[in-house]
Design goal:
alpha+beta; about 25% strand
């Protein structure tokens, strides 16, 4: 439908705090869905205590639903930004003032998008809605939800290069544009039937790396857990392992809870995978992820592991391999691995996808300080490893990936 045929000027937001109230048929009819905008995910996480979620949908007064947005209220912690960004001396001093003794700096954040994951999971729009109206309505959503929740720090995340180029000119002067580490994605050929075919597309050094990972981790026992009762029992132990990894992040937004794994498994069925790793019977790690068939995507959700076991058995790399193996088995076209351990992921063929985030703080002079912080704190530069053979590099470039 052409934008001129849509009645945009009088469109109004409608808000739904309970999943049972959302007009899911209309929500699911909007293009551009993802795992984190899937009805199953939103219903499963409705009882989450660390992340409050509200669904908004905008409708023309006498016409169709024009779009939907996910808004979240979450407790954030800034812990060690200097370890993840090339911060200036001035930023180090400012951080020390805000975090005396290295204590985390805590603040509530209003997020449009997904606080527990990375990627373009902010909103859905009907075909024909211009970028200027997408931004205008997103800003309206922030104004409405900020008034409701009383939150002064706003974050609209994440936007890939193509999408960002369309919407960037339309944000008001209230916002500052920031770039953090890229999200790492492993592109897959849906024609592959086994990991052998994936490995055949890699350079010799990368294939050798894969064989080393499989050899070092061969003594570990892997088990896919799907029973609700077993996941509920495992929940506290999984969270303990998860905190060993997530606790090292520079900025922590919300976090997982004991019952999340059971709720997600119950909602997604075979599209949710949680795999445990045991060393001589002792739980040493886990990974979990979501398969979104409509977009052909595996979302690597969260992992947890004992650091010492990881060093000995290359456990984290084995988890990355298992995500890729799962993606191939369900004919996915990509595995989204998040924005940490960039170099390690690139050794297995992950390619960086830059993302932009728009931030606003409703405090006097705060935006001046924020813009200075952004200028002085670029993400660490890293050079991805060249894992793919030349012909596959060309193939992924044709699909829009940046190949080193």
């Amino acid at each position: 439908m052409e934008s001129g045929a849509l009645n945009l000027t009088q469109a109004k937001w409608h808000w739904f705090e309970s999943p049972s109230d959302v007009p899911w048929q209309e929500w699911e009819a909007l293009p551009g869905g993802s795992a984190y905008l899937d009805r199953r995910y939103l219903e499963a996480m409705a009882g989450h205590q660390k992340v409050k979620c509200c669904i908004g949908m905008i409708k023309a007064p006498d016409g169709p639903w024009l779009g939907g947005i996910m808004m979240q209220a979450v407790q954030s912690e800034s812990r060690s930004p200097a370890e993840h960004m090339d911060v200036s001396v001035g930023v180090k001093i400012a951080t020390a003032i805000m975090q005396p003794g290295g204590r985390p700096f805590r603040f509530k954040t209003l997020v449009a998008g997904q606080s527990l994951g990375s990627g373009e999971h902010t909103y859905l729009w009907r075909d024909g809605v211009p970028p200027s109206w997408q931004v205008k309505w997103t800003e309206q959503a922030f104004d409405i939800c900020a008034k409701k929740w009383g939150i002064r720090v706003w974050m609209a995340k994440d936007f890939g290069p193509e999408h960002d180029a369309l919407i960037a000119p339309h944000w008001s002067s209230r916002w500052a544009r920031a770039s953090f580490d890229p999200v790492m994605e492993v592109p897959l050929d849906p024609d592959w039937n086994s990991t052998d075919q994936w490995q055949a597309a890699l350079r010799t050094k990368a294939r050798t790396k894969v064989r080393s990972i499989l050899s070092r981790s061969s003594s570990l026992s892997l088990k896919r857990v799907s029973q609700k009762t077993e996941l509920e029992q495992l929940g506290p132990d999984l969270i303990e392992l998860y905190e060993l990894v997530y606790g090292r992040a520079s900025i922590v937004m919300g976090g997982l809870e004991d019952l999340d794994f059971a709720r997600l498994s119950e909602a997604f069925g075979e599209d949710f995978a949680l795999v445990t790793y045991r060393d001589e019977g002792k739980l040493a790690g886990f990974h979990c992820g979501i398969h979104h068939a409509a977009s052909g995507t595996i979302e690597a959700y969260y992992v947890g592991f004992d650091p010492e076991v990881n060093k000995t058995f290359a456990l984290y790399q084995r988890m990355l391999f298992e995500f890729i193996s799962w993606g191939i088995s369900v004919k996915a076209n990509r595995v989204v691995m998040g924005r940490t351990a960039l170099e390690i992921k690139s050794t297995l063929g992950a390619l960086p996808v830059p993302l932009s985030t728009y931030v606003h703080i409703r405090l006097p002079l705060a935006m001046v300080f924020l813009r200075w912080m952004i200028r002085k704190s670029p993400p660490h530069r890293f050079k991805p490893r060249r894992a793919w053979l030349a012909e596959w590099c060309e193939k992924w470039q044709e699909k829009g990936y940046q190949v080193n």
